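Practice problem 4.
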């Protein structure tokens, strides 16, 4: 996905929040958007998700399915987490049974407490945040956008969220998240975009010094499918082995996705610098 010469201001008299943004996000990347409060991080995310239009320039190549987790999720009302997620799943084209099953699976993983059948308005901020994450993943997104997703989450949900981000990327999706803490960006992202004074600057590959080479061998019985995995360096040679290079923090999610696809792991080594 690409931002080309993108500028954004709110209203004709508003000042430019973002100007001349030229940036790109590729499939399989987890990109952190960092910058001070009010610098325009949420605006950049809303442009990515297609929730707001650029005042100038274009955003192209947006994947068809976008999952969006807003910074404040206001699920007021009497609907329960189960009813709400099942309803949204149906809106997104899942049947009722699949929708309810997917909702249950996500709430299990995120360990929602406070009651799946309780009115959403009674949930704590952390549990409401879990519902916000779940609604964005009912259908696997090609673009997963999260605005300050770690705020308010308990420690175990932190880990699950990190796994979920890595899984979307390992499945060939793009993840874009904000946080004002650089440490979280370093831990969970493969790359950062820094927003300041209306400008967006790539911070370079945070993982270039910490890459892992993975070699996979096809063990499936049928013909080998095209690999929907990130970091493919070359298509398989005559030995049928596939070579990939990924940031260390994505290795677990990549291996998990590869095993599920029917690959077996032939080799995992430090990438030569
Ligand atoms: P961040 O996410 O980095 O805190 P935002 O993108 O939310 O930054 O906001 C950037 C600037 O744009 C701020 O000055 C904010 O007041 C302004 N802004 C954001 N959303 C709107 C809006 N809907 N209408 C008018 N101004 C807005």
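Answer key:
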């Amino acid at each position: 996905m690409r931002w080309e010469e993108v500028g954004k201001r709110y209203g004709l008299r508003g000042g430019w929040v973002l100007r001349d943004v030229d940036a790109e996000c590729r499939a399989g990347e987890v990109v952190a958007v960092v910058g001070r409060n009010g610098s325009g991080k949420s605006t950049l995310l809303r442009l990515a998700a297609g929730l707001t239009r650029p005042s100038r320039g274009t955003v192209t190549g947006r994947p068809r399915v976008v999952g969006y987790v807003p910074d404040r999720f206001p699920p007021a009302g009497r609907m329960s987490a189960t009813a709400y997620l099942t309803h949204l799943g149906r809106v997104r084209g899942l049947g009722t049974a699949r929708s309810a099953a997917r909702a249950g699976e996500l709430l299990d993983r995120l360990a929602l407490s406070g009651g799946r059948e309780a009115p959403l308005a009674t949930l704590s901020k952390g549990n409401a945040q879990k519902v916000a994450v779940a609604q964005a993943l009912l259908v696997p997104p090609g673009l997963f956008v999260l605005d300050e997703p770690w705020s308010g989450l308990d420690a175990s949900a932190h880990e699950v969220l990190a796994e979920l981000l890595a899984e979307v990327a390992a499945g060939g999706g793009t993840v874009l998240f904000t946080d004002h803490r650089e440490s979280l960006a370093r831990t969970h992202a493969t790359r950062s975009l820094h927003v300041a004074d209306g400008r967006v600057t790539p911070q370079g590959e945070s993982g270039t010094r910490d890459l892992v080479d993975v070699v996979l061998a096809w063990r499936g019985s049928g013909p080998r499918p095209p690999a929907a995995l990130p970091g493919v360096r070359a298509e398989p040679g005559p030995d049928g082995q596939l070579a990939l290079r990924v940031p260390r923090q994505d290795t677990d999610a990549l291996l998990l996705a590869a095993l599920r696809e029917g690959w077996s792991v032939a080799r995992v080594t430090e990438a030569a610098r």
